[in-house]
């Protein structure tokens, strides 16, 4: 799920893919662009707003997606009826899913549980429009990355059903054919790309226009999250004591090198939506693509592959580091059926429900520690281990004064379309200054 057409579409695609197993992108016609409030019943019902249509829960279980099965189980156990409302956008010329989320919550349109992307969580959390979930039964089990990403002003305002981790999808057989190890450092990756290019691969790394920011964020923030003190460093950025552009420079310069060396066809990537790079990877025309872990499941993302694949974190000077982007479900402060919604949320997040969901969708569990019955897809085993051991970059964090995930995506697209690295860095500094001005911290 990614929210960024003009900072919005990529997360909308990710939310649809990773939470509800839909396709990358969603939509309604112009005549249906306005999503109206559904009738709110006075009996045991809750209203759920999602980015993808959800099948009637009376559908045969074998025909349901993993998310639908989880909802159906929670509906049966709670005795509460779920009503699903949705918004999609085929052309993204109308309002994005994120725009509609913001409008619905701000206008108190009756949603009880709402699935959101990172920027929406951050915005609504800072506006005080989301309920504090800190006291829910399952919260002590949550992984630290979820608490760090979705705790705003001391309140846990959203929780995901899975952790979304980005990395490099590698065709292991092609690496072995040319005597290459999977890359641990940026220099390793450049060497691998050089060898692949010398052996006839025109563009060794496949990409789309939404996820190249993971290169930038991994290079810039690995030291902070692995060896540093994120809370202190983020606070310093928010006070203007350090420059956001200093964190972004290494990744932008590295990405520019990948472009200039011809290792990424950035002009084609600029026209690609999420997962459009998949056919070239499936056909072994490119040895590497970047994606989120759910794309490794055969029924999701890139589909069935006829070669061995392994998903690794982004190569950095600290080794392979996954980049995490958090979506999540939250309860608006204005929810009409808050008590019932809390009951449902606790049921949805029961271990047996999450194990069934995670095993069916190839996800990384939001819970820490060993969980009975939880399976890990073999291709993402190393990525999952890294996440569970706290070795990652958290790209979505509500404590930043500047929203990073979408803004970085947008600025990387400017790099793809001809902006210089220095011009891109100036954009980051302007965003930081704007945030300082808004907080009254500008000199």
Unreliable residue runs: 1-14, 16-42
Q: Number of helix segments?
A: 17
Radius of gyration: 21 Å
Structural class: alpha/beta
Largest sheet: 6 strands, mixed
Proportion of residues in extended strands = 5-15%
What is the straight-line distance between the termini? Answer: 38 Å
Helix fraction bin: 40-55%
Mean pLDDT: 87
Bulk shape: globular
Number of strands: 14
Keywords for this entry:
4-stranded mixed beta sheet; globular; alpha/beta
Provide a descriptive summary of the structure in words.
This protein has 443 residues and is an alpha/beta fold. It is built from 17 helices and 14 strands. Strands 6, 7, 8, 9, 12 and 14 form a six-stranded mixed β-sheet that branches. Strand 1, helix 2 and strand 2 form a beta-alpha-beta unit.
Summarize the structure.
By secondary structure, this protein is of the alpha/beta class. It is 41% helix and 12% strand.
Describe the secondary-structure layout:
Blueprint: H1 9-19, E1 45-50, H2 66-78, E2 81-86, H3 97-106, E3 113-116, H4 118-126, H5 144-150, E4 151-152, E5 155-156, E6 165-171, H6 172-177, H7 186-198, E7 205-206, H8 213-226, H9 230-239, H10 244-260, H11 266-269, H12 278-282, E8 288-292, E9 309-312, E10 314-316, E11 319-321, E12 323-324, E13 328-330, H13 338-348, H14 351-361, H15 381-388, E14 393-394, H16 404-416, H17 421-438
Parallel strand pairs: 1-2, 1-3, 7-8, 12-14
Antiparallel strand pairs: 3-13, 4-5, 6-8, 6-9, 6-12, 10-11
Helix pairs in contact: 2-13, 2-14, 3-4, 8-10, 10-17, 16-17
